[in-house]
Design a protein that fits this description.
The chain has 299 residues and is of the alpha/beta class. The protein has three domains: 80 residues, Winged helix-like DNA-binding domain superfamily/Winged helix DNA-binding domain (Arc Repressor Mutant, subunit A, Orthogonal Bundle), CATH 1.10.10; 101 residues, D-Maltodextrin-Binding Protein, domain 2; 101 residues, 3-Layer(aba) Sandwich (D-Maltodextrin-Binding Protein, domain 2), CATH 3.40.190. The chain has eleven helices and 13 strands.
Length: 299
């Protein structure tokens, strides 16, 4: 059998490579930076390779380090997943559900009611759920997220990914705004359009061009630009202007009369909302309960 590298040294290397500093790795591992440095030197001696180079005050991976890091990270994640799946105490701990800001502020709370309604694995072990709002990408180990809801990217291909639903984009505005400007999109001025730009992690964002007459040129600079659909909803709800948002996110506002759909076509969003989690967690009762409730979302 091929000899394995020293586990503590491999762990130290992975932590330094990920955090970018011996000090940060030491804080994560609960040891001094000098101890981390010694472990990395042990691994360099074991492999006969230089794993890091210094560029001024900056620590960078060498060519050998760049080659080793992906496999080292995968090994650490696999061991963490194994520990999680084999530990009975972790099975009874809080389930951390990581979500984007817009999801947490719109349709997720109503779905959490469904999760809690039948959440108990048994009376002695009710589901303990923790919601963590953060941007992609997220980690699934070292006390981080257990499950992640996301849209429109492939950052979690190495994990189990389940499709939740496909949503549609709709145009909405407040009743007061519609009373003053009408509900026909061709009559709404460019400076009353709220543009949502989700950022570099997404291939597409809601695009007003698809919802306005083809002969109308839009001055994007005249409107308001925001980075989240929940923010677009908030400005539209306040009467600022018209927003182009996922239908499920606007559902409660429309039902309560805070927003009204404008006279514009809807379009299917190009990607589904999905949820990712490590394969090692797929048989956890709380993971299955959460997945079942979220899969019941009806856009």
């Amino acid at each position: 059998m091929t000899l394995l590298p020293p586990l503590n040294a491999l762990r130290a290397f992975e932590s330094v490579a990920r955090t970018g500093a011996f000090t940060a790795a030491g804080a994560e591992l609960g040891v001094t930076s000098a101890a981390v440095s010694q472990q990395v030197r042990n691994l360099e001696t074991y492999w006969g390779k230089k794993l890091f180079i210094r560029q001024g005050n900056r620590l960078a991976l060498s060519e050998a380090g760049l080659a080793a890091y992906p496999a080292a990270a995968l090994a650490m994640n696999t061991l963490a997943d194994l520990s999680e799946s084999m530990s009975e105490t972790r099975h009874l701990s809080s389930l951390v559900l990581s979500v984007p800001h817009s999801v947490a502020e719109t349709w997720l709370p109503s779905r959490l009611q469904a999760i809690q309604a039948g959440s108990g694995i048994d009376e002695a072990t009710p589901l303990r759920l923790q919601i963590r709002i953060e941007d992609d990408p997220v980690e699934f180990t070292r006390g981080s997220a257990h499950m992640r809801i996301f849209y429109g990217h492939g950052l979690y291909r190495e994990y189990r990914v389940e499709t939740l639903f496909h949503d549609h984009l709709i145009a909405v505005a407040s009743p007061d705004f519609i009373a003053q400007n009408g509900s026909a999109m061709q009559h709404i001025a460019d400076h009353h359009l709220v543009h949502t730009v989700w950022g570099p992690n997404y291939a597409t964002s809601p695009n007003w061009t698809d919802h306005l007459p083809s002969d109308r040129a839009i001055d994007v600079a005249a409107g308001l630009r925001v980075s989240a659909s929940s923010t677009a909803l908030a400005f539209s709800r306040s009467g600022y202007g018209a927003a182009l948002v996922p239908a499920l996110m606007a559902g409660e506002d429309i039902a309560c009369g805070r927003l009204i759909r404008l006279d514009a076509p809807e379009s299917r969003m190009p990607y589904p909302y999905s949820i990712a989690f490590p394969y090692a967690l797929q048989n956890r009762p709380d993971v299955q309960q959460t997945l079942s409730a979220l899969s019941g979302v009806d856009p």
